[in-house]
Amino acid sequence: MPSKPRTLAGILHRRRHADAEYNRARRGDPDRGVEDAVVSSARWKAVRAQVLRNEPLCRACVAAGRTELATQVDHVVPVRVRPDLAYDPTNLQPICGFHHGLKNAAERRSGGVGGDLELSRLGGLRRGGGRVVFFTG
């Protein structure tokens, strides 16, 4: 039975192996190419900046009565589902990193379908007592 690594080199070796596995799986995802092409384009950077300028607060936090700056621009319907909506401002919502992570995790659990997982239909999300609380209203 392998023992726990006792040195920094041993810990980093395990981390590098885990990162390599993650990167290998990510490269093998055929839909990832479309998403990477969109988010690395100059057009996306301009649209993203415009969305954050027009609406600087996280929509989910505003729905919960909080004022948190949006740091991410999220596709309501994921690019892998509808690549034609990648730059459509009506398909984009500014959200904070916390809510972006929650939404992406929910999309991954549901198999990558995001149309019904938009934050406004969930009623918003908020942090409460160190745990995630879903609320309706």
Number of domains: 2
According to DSSP, the number of beta strands is: 4
Distance between the termini: 51 Å
Strand order of the largest sheet: 1-2
- Taking pLDDT < 50 over at least 5 consecutive residues as the criterion, the unreliable ranges are 120-137
Helix share bin: 40-55%
Shape: globular
Account of the 3D structure:
- This protein is α+β, with helices and mostly antiparallel strands and 137 residues long.
- It has 2 domains: 7-40; 43-134, no CATH class.
- The protein contains 6 helices and 4 strands; from the N terminus they run ααααββααββ.
- The chain has helices at residues 8-27, 32-39, 42-54, 59-63, 97-109, 119-122; strands at residues 72-75, 92-95, 125-128, 131-134.
- The strands form 2 sheets. A two-stranded antiparallel sheet has the order 1-2. A two-stranded antiparallel sheet has the order 3-4.
- Strand 3 and strand 4 form a beta hairpin.
- The longest helix is centred in the first third of the chain and has 20 residues, at 8-27.
- It is globular, with a radius of gyration of 18 Å.
- 16% of the residues are buried.
- The model is unreliable at 120-137 (pLDDT under 50).
Keywords:
137 residues, 2 domains, two-stranded antiparallel sheet, disordered C terminus, globular, 12% strand, 6 helices, alpha+beta, single chain
Topology:
Layout: H1 8-27, H2 32-39, H3 42-54, H4 59-63, E1 72-75, E2 92-95, H5 97-109, H6 119-122, E3 125-128, E4 131-134
Antiparallel strand pairs: 1-2, 3-4
